Amino acid sequence: MTPHPFKQVPAVYHRQLGDVLVTGLSDGYMDMGYEIFRDIPEDEVRAILAREHRIAPPRISINVFALRFGGKTYLVDCGSQHFMGPTCGRLMDNLAAAGITAGSVDGVILTHVHPDHSNGLTDVATGQPIFPNAEVIVHQAEIDHWYDDAAMARATERQRLRYFQWGREQLDPYRAADKVRTFRDGEILPGIIAIPCPGHTPGHCSYVVSSGRQSMIVWGDTVHVPEIQLARPEVAMQFDTDPERGVRSRQRILDMVIADDLLVAGMHVHFPGFGHMRGENGRYSIVAEQWAYTA
């Protein structure tokens, strides 16, 4: 008798965007409690998840996107290594399955410096960069905030460890090697435009990637649990730095995506993470992109 498989096939998905090969890569997932949301009762969260046939309590997918063009390879975010528990830290295996080595990565573009997005930069046991030939590209406000000792002192103990300390440990080797490049807005690489959308963190960014006549947005943490924050875009998260500003940024990004008919690549959209938005009367939903059988 043939034994049943214990694992899924590698969580890797390729799609072409003009001349850019975009690859969705899963770092895993986190199952979270109902307390992660602000200003929405638990029974409403349960009802929405049940209606959408989703796992309760909420499951948050964690995706990374590789962009290959012009002989270069860039990652948008880099996962979490072992820091976020045993269901995360799958990026390196999936990179290998996608034919990408750590040494071949030319840059890591961070949407922001939270551990599920940036804790894959450095092996803290050795202090060595995991991507030795890469520069880290990140909004200046992220560096200003997470290296602000006064802000760190005001934070809770959990925030000091998971956001400030971990963020510094991940970035320090690249800063020491002068491999951190910051920006405020505008084009950060050919065909890649940064769209600052602060609130979740001070320098949280989305990125519009364009090639030929095709465009998509890698929208970072615009939403964490799509079923909840698209149905109720005014719902903030407990780990937002500035919840009200984050809600405004989310509304602006959602409206821009619909107005410009952008393909979405979402870090917390269920793998493979690509979809199209629809909206009506201030409520939104995302329709998963049809599976492409060739890249």
Radius of gyration: 18 Å
Mean of residue pLDDT?
96
How much strand? 25-35%
Name of the level-1 CATH class = Alpha Beta
- In DSSP terms (H or I, runs of 4 or more residues), the helix count works out at 8
Looking at CATH, which topology would you report?
Metallo-beta-lactamase, Chain A
Counted beta strands: 16
Uncertain residue segments: none
* Cross-sheet strand order for the largest sheet: 1-2-3-4-5-8-9
- Termini gap: 35 Å
Shape: globular
Fraction in helix: 25-40%
Structural class assignment: alpha+beta
Secondary structure blueprint with pairings:
Blueprint: E1 12-17, E2 20-31, H1 42-51, E3 59-69, E4 72-76, H2 91-97, E5 107-109, H3 115-118, E6 122-123, E7 128-129, E8 135-139, H4 140-146, H5 149-154, H6 157-176, E9 180-183, E10 186-189, E11 192-196, E12 205-211, E13 214-218, H7 226-231, H8 243-260, E14 263-265, E15 274-280, E16 283-288
Parallel strand pairs: 4-5, 5-8, 8-9, 13-14
Antiparallel strand pairs: 1-2, 2-3, 3-4, 6-7, 10-11, 11-12, 12-13, 14-15, 15-16
Tell me about this structure:
InterPro entries: MBL_superfamily_lactonases, Metallo-B-lactamas, RibonucZ/Hydroxyglut_hydro. Pfam families: Lactamase_B. One of its GO terms (molecular function) is hydrolase activity. This is Metallo-beta-lactamase superfamily protein. By secondary structure, the chain is of the alpha+beta class. The protein has one domain: Ribonuclease Z/Hydroxyacylglutathione hydrolase-like (Metallo-beta-lactamase, Chain A, 4-Layer Sandwich), CATH 3.60.15. It contains 8 helices and 16 strands. Strands 1-2-3-4-5-8-9 form a 7-stranded mixed beta sheet. The chain is globular. The two termini are 35 Å apart. The model has no long low-confidence stretch (mean pLDDT 96).
